[in-house]
Amino acid sequence: MSIVSRSYASPDAADALKRQRRMASVTSLVIAILVVALVAIVLALFLLPAFRLEVAPIVAYSAEVEKEEVVEQPEVTPQVQRQPAAPSSTMAKVIATSVPSPTAVPVPETDTPDPSLEFGDGDDFGEGWGEGSGSGLGGGTSFFGVASRAERIAYVIDYSASMRGQGREELMRKELIRSVDRIAPKTNYALIFFAGPAWVAGDEVDWTKQKATVTGKGRRKYDWKSPGTAHEWKQVGEKEPVDWLRATDGQLSKSRKIIKETRLVWGTRWDNPLQMALDMDPPPQVIYFMTDGSARGSDKWSREIGARARSRGIKINCVAMMQPKAHDDMEDLAKRTDGHFTIVMQGGQRKKVR
User: Fold this and answer.
1) What would the pLDDT profile of 97-148 be if each residue is shown by its tens digit?
2) Please, which residues have CB within 8 angstroms of residue 259's CB and are 6 or more apart in sequence?
3) pLDDT in tens, 323-350
4) Residue in 324, 326, 322, 338 with CA at minimum distance from that of residue 144
């Protein structure tokens, strides 16, 4: 007789057994995962350096900085120089003026000798001036060999009928045109003509031996009278003003035409035109005065005009056109104003007196 033994478990025990199996399975799975992770970490520690990327280094270049050059400057030892003694009162030159001028510093005058005796020939200004190129300081020109550097120049020129003799008229017109052509661009200039009456170049002049009417700018009329003598002309009524002309090509061309075409007029009195020049505002710095005749009363004129011109700082350069009788008074006028005096002889030769 065989004996069969059977084991029987309760339901609770069976459930407990199933839970244990599940827990064991989960635990085994977790352990397996952790082992795999651990193995992966170990492998990573050994294998990752092999997969490290080689990054090329960045190289920066900088230009070589130049060394600053040090310039050794010589040591300056200040020295005190003794000032020269002041000139004596007899050597000091005083310029007096009673009327203010727009130009504060007087413009010096240069006078280069003209070696040629031929009329109108010579380079009065030397290098840098040439034939009136206008490159000189402050402007300027020359007239019968006397050069001047100035910003304002007035011409007082004899247009009397006596200029017809001995070629005077031709010489006068030729040299005056030449002088005007040489006026530097910076220069203002004025042309005053005279005989018995006086007028601004370009005016209309109607005259007889006893009266004259000058028609000037704006058709204004200015009257002159004479008792019938050449040297006693006087202005009647309003005095004619004189305006400055600018040395432009157009204006110089007009002046050349006027110089050529203006008629000669009867009479000779030169104090009136010089007074017209002195009355200009602003006054001229240099006056070129030329006449061919002596006149009664000219010794008085030279004193009065010389004193007035000197008080205003105006230099008068005098030119006697073939007239030795005018020598003394014209030389005195030039001397009083620190100007030059020149005698033009027949043929155009020039003799500078002072």
Assistant:
1) 444 444 444 444 444 444 333 333 333 433 333 333 333 446 789 999 999 9
2) 173, 176, 177, 180, 191, 201
3) 767 788 999 999 999 999 999 988 888 8
4) 322
d(CA 138, CA 107): 8
* Closest-CA residue to 272 (of 304, 228, 243): 304
- 339 in Cβ contact with 306 (< 8 Å): no
Q: How far apart are CA 134 and CA 19, in angstroms?
A: 128
- Grouping H, G, I as helix, E, B as strand and the rest as coil, residue 173 is helix
Strands, DSSP E only, in 259-314?
A: 286-291
Whether residue 203 contacts residue 214, with contact meaning beta carbons closer than 8 Å, is answered with yes
Determine contact, residues 198/273, Cβ cutoff 8 Å.
yes
- Chain mean position to CA 93: 29
Give the domain 141-352 fold: Rossmann fold (3.40.50)
Yes or no: say if 327 and 151 are a contact pair by the CB < 8 Å rule.
Answer: no
Q: Give me 180's structure tokens.
A: 């005007």
Q: Cα(190)–Cα(277) distance, rounded to whole angstroms?
A: 8
State how far the Cα of 148 lies from the Cα of 318, in Å rounded to an integer.
13
What is the domain partition of the chain in residue ranges? Answer: 141-352
CB neighbour burial string for 300-327, b if at least 16 within 10 angstroms, e if fewer: ebbeebbebbbebbbbbbbbbbbbeebe
Report if pTM > 0.90: no
**Cα-based angle 301, 302, 305 (whole degrees, multiple of 5):** 75
